[in-house]
């Protein structure tokens, strides 16, 4: 079993009957959703809130009941992946373009559990280009403003056309040398007109399940 599958499946240990569960996006949490589908067939009663159209489709295929913000007043736990995790437990997310809905769901969750293989652990964020979701109108200008923060932004393309997010926006992948103050950068980027959200998740996850090559899972609890 690979490390992503290992931690993805392990995450269901934290999901109990009756919970409202935020369903993250990506190739690690894919395994969580698969396992949840199996448990639901066996009688587990949960309601999911998906963070992307992709995840919504997968959950529906597997028969996981879904709900929405209009119908519930809390999310008990969200399971999601990450592109980078630094030693202070800050994250970069959005490699799969789902960062905006992921951040909304994470902010509404009592618990955020991150599942990742050990390749995602870094000393300092910034190797992975930071995804920033921007409104298509005037994106070229928004990109210039973002570049003033000392990065090289690039419009994310699919088949030579802008990649469109589930929310109808574009993604700029912004390569920084290193991100020294993630919390500050998170706030400042979001003040630029045209920026909808960025992929920095500064120290908001409660727990990390890290899959290692030797088949073990490292559980890190955030004591903040
Ligand atoms: O937009 C995508 C999400 O933030 C993912 O959770 C992140 O990219 C990690 O994905 P994966 O588990 O496929 O590496």
Topology:
Layout: H1 3-10, E1 20-23, H2 29-41, E2 47-50, H3 53-61, E3 75-80, E4 84-85, E5 91-92, H4 99-107, E6 109-117, E7 130-134, H5 139-147, E8 151-155, E9 157-158, E10 161-162, E11 170-176, H6 182-189, E12 195-198, E13 200-201, E14 207-211, E15 217-221
Parallel strand pairs: 1-2, 1-3, 3-6, 6-14
Antiparallel strand pairs: 4-5, 5-13, 7-11, 7-12, 8-11, 9-10, 14-15
Helix pairs in contact: 1-2
The chain binds ribose-5-phosphate.
Ribose-5-phosphate binds at residues 24-28, 80-83, 93-99, 102.
Subunit structure: Homodimer.
Enzyme class: isomerase
Keywords: Isomerase
Summary keywords:
single chain; 224 residues; alpha/beta; Rossmann fold; Alpha-Beta Plaits; six-stranded mixed beta sheet; four-stranded antiparallel beta sheet; 15 strands; globular; binds ribose-5-phosphate
Bound molecules: ribose-5-phosphate
**Morphology call:** globular
**Multimer state:** single chain
Total DSSP helices: 6
Protein name: Ribose-5-phosphate isomerase A
GO cellular component, one term: cytosol
Pathway: Carbohydrate degradation; pentose phosphate pathway; D-ribose 5-phosphate from D-ribulose 5-phosphate (non-oxidative stage): step 1/1
Subunit structure: Homodimer.
């Amino acid at each position: 079993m690979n490390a992503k599958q290992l931690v993805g499946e392990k995450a269901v240990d934290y999901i109990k009957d009756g919970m409202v569960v935020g369903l993250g996006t990506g190739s690690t949490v894919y395994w969580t959703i698969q396992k949840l589908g199996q448990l639901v067939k066996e009688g587990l009663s949960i309601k999911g809130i998906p963070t992307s159209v992709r995840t919504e489709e997968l959950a529906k295929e597997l028969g996981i009941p879904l709900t929405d913000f209009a119908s519930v007043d809390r999310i008990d736990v969200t399971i999601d992946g990450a592109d980078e995790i630094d030693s202070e437990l800050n994250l970069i997310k959005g490699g799969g373009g789902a960062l905006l809905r992921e951040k909304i769901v994470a902010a509404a969750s009592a618990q955020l559990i991150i599942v990742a293989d050990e390749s995602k652990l870094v000393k300092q964020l910034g190797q992975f280009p930071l995804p920033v979701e921007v409104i298509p109108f005037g994106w070229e200008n928004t990109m210039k403003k973002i570049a003033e923060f000392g990065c090289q932004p690039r419009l994310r393309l699919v088949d030579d056309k802008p990649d469109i997010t589930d929310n109808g926006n574009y993604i700029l992948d912004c390569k920084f040398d290193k991100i020294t103050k993630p919390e500050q950068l998170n706030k400042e980027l979001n003040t630029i007109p045209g920026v909808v959200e960025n992929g920095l998740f500064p120290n908001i996850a409660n727990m990390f399940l890290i899959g290692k090559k030797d088949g073990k899972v490292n559980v890190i609890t955030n004591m903040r």
